[in-house]
Design brief:
The complex is a heterodimer. Chain A is an all-alpha fold. Chain A contains 7 helices and no strands. Chain A has one domain (3-218). Helix content of chain A is 80%, strand content 0%. In chain B, a hairpin with a 4-residue loop joins strand 3 and strand 4 (517-519). Chain B is globular and about 100 Å long. Chain B is 70% helix and 5% strand. Chain B is mostly helical. Among the domains of chain B are: 275-301 and 314-540, no CATH class; 570-617, no CATH class. At the A-B interface, helix 4 and helix 5 of A face helix 25 of B.
Amino acid sequence: MTAALYHQLLDLTAGALLLTAVLVVWRRDLAMIIRIFAVQGVALAALVGVLAAHEGSVELAVVALGVLVLRAGVLPALLRRALAAAGDDRRETRPLVNVAASLLAAAALTLLALAVSAPIVELAPSPTTRAAPIGVAVVLIGFFVLVTRRRALSQLVGFLLMDNGITAVGFLVTSGIGLVVEVGVALDVLLVVLVLGILTGRMREVFGGTDLDELRELHD
Amino acid sequence: MSVVGAALAATGASCAGGVLAALAVPRARRALVVGMLTCVAGACATVAGAAAMLGHTWAAELPGLLPLSGVVLGVDALGGVFVAVGGAVAVAVALYGIGYSRHGLDGRAVQAMVPVFVGSLLLVPIAADVTTLLVAWELMALTSLLLVVAEHRRRAAVASAGRWYAVMTHLGFVAILIGLLVLAAPAADGSFAAVRAAAGALPPVAAGAVFVLCLVGFGSKAGIVPLHAWLPRAHPEAPSPVSALMSAAMVNLGVYGIVRVGLDLMGGGTRWWWLLVMALGAVSAVYGILQAVVSSDLKRLLAYSTTENMGLVLVGVGACGLFAATGNPVLAALALTAALLHLLGHAAFKTLLFLGAGSVLHATGTRDLDELGGLRAGMPVTTAAFGLGALAASTLPPGTAFVGEWLLLQSLVHGLPAPGVATSIVLPVAVAAVALTAGLAVATFVKAFGVGFLARPRSDAAAAARESPPTMLAGMALAGVACVVLAVAPTVVLPVLATVAGDLLAVAPPVSGAVTVELAGVTGALSPLLLATALALAAALVVVLPRLLVARRARRAARLWDCGAGPLSARMEYTATSFAEPLQRVFDDVLQPVQDIDVTHHRESAYLVQSVAYRRLVPDRVERRLYTPVLAAAAAWGRVGRRLGTGSVHRYLGYGFVGLCGLLVLLVLTR
């Protein structure tokens, strides 16, 4: 792989990562959000795959495959199952911040991420570290989704966006944090999604909905 | 390995053995085994401390025991004093605890905590770096807290006392932590040698702040006014052996910290530090004994007396620092010797008094002096022990506290021609405070002993009191022997203490003499042994001579004059409240007692009184003025905080998000 091709592929996959995050903020249909999330998983796996091809590392290639299976296959499937259980209420109808303002906020968060990661880039300027701010931006956008969405499922997607962002930053800055660590993190995320899926189901059974704002009677 | 090292290793092994025994041995023999092992630990520590005081030093590093810095241990003469005192107190208390624990304190957890507490309070003075000191200090605080709340199922007041103690001790710990970290910042590492070498590099303001923080932290442990609020709560509510350990051994470590940081690590410092220490010490001494004299709870009285005695010790420490800062090291060494001797004496008599009070509580179930009295018949040994302790504490010859206070007064009086306006005001005031304290201490302990133990019993419980088991009496006897030795022959330890103080200030020992205490540098001499002998002879003369002279006349037995009001009853006696009433009147403005008199008249005539109910409460005034507003402010702040928690999950997430973004923005802007 030539340096220019590597550079372009890196930019492409990182750009796809950010674009999918913004699309999650934009769309309201939960099924579409899950589909976008799966695309982001593919983008993340491609990013790792490009790194693996550049470094010629078999271990990294295995990790890329694992990322693809987990984030583009297993997690979206789990989310889809939770959505199917939810019945016909399949839209994020009233987010706390409306869509236009959300998109502006996503732009502002991306700028903040670029500004904050400047010292990290300066430490060792290279194509990979220059892509790292994208990961930070995805983390912040994920957090934003987590905060502003009412439905438990879209909050879960926000949480997974954050995790995707953290993983991307990890790979871009350290070029792989070891197979064992990666497997551990992946299992953690899987477990979180499983537990939250069950929790969402229980909430629906007990309260008849998963709007978290209806839970404010729970304080002391 | 030196004597000190071997003895300390034996101490550690015995403490560990005590913990294991507490967990493994069945209940019937648990207290005995743990008590004996703790006793051995205390004895070994006493040997180690005594050897260290005589000039054997020892140091060790255990790098793997704590992350980052490891554990650094080292014993010098100053630390040796506190190790010896702590060990000796532990011996008496552990022996006593064997019998006392049958009273429902032989659970696994409580028994396991005692050796840990003893070990941790011996570890504090042998810690030789900042981390080790802090860890040992925190371990001591936690174990003592667990022991204080040992009886929380029986009395609700225990839990409240535990909360007070926990909060105060941890605030103190935070102060010490900040102070020591700032102090150690310019040093190469945290060891005391490096800190000592680098302490000069601190700017004066930072050095002053470090000293004040350490004074606050260590002073709160020593029970110094206004940080004493936990002491009159925790000491009475703790089981009595624990009260004795805390009051006789643990509070001393507050003084150790101040001496170690102020005089040793920071090398003296400036005059205002020590004027502050003296002022706090004098206020504590007077305020503590004033509260003690009006208290009718026996253990609360003893706890306030601890505040008083620690105040006196701090007056000595402050005088030492002051004289050292004004260029009079000989007098400074004398003041420090006085402080150390008083500390030793206090440890001895306060152990005895708390153990005696525990014995009374064990037998009667009450600490209220108004409901005691007449214990002499049922508990002769405890009465004799408490009497000895009361004499020792009352600063009269031939008492234990007398020699220390005499030395202290000598150093203060001879320091009077010191330069500076503030100094020339503080020193005479300190002399007056020490003298006033001595007088009030006599009244306090006359009350505690006379009202509590003599005359007739004022309650059924007091009348039915029986003597404690022999192990408890043996513990009291050990402490009593220490009191007598320190009272009659303080010269056994005085030259050693003088050498310790002299070495710290780089002068010759200020006190010498085998029978007579001779002062170096100033004129003054005292022979406690001759004084005690003369007093004993005079007393014997007063008792024997009239009998010899009067014996020839015929004696006849008659009823005691009772004003014709029928046989004398317990209701005619002085109670603790009535005994303290004149003093309470004298110090009315300071104490501000709350009194409530309720007179019920006969229904037939308003001139005939049916009953009079009298209630008196002496609330701690410092506490009311200082702590109540702070607590109210904290509660108000808490209520504001509750408004943040509305129950909305989004809002909680939002706090995190906004906090994170704010932090990132701040990072970008300040870079």
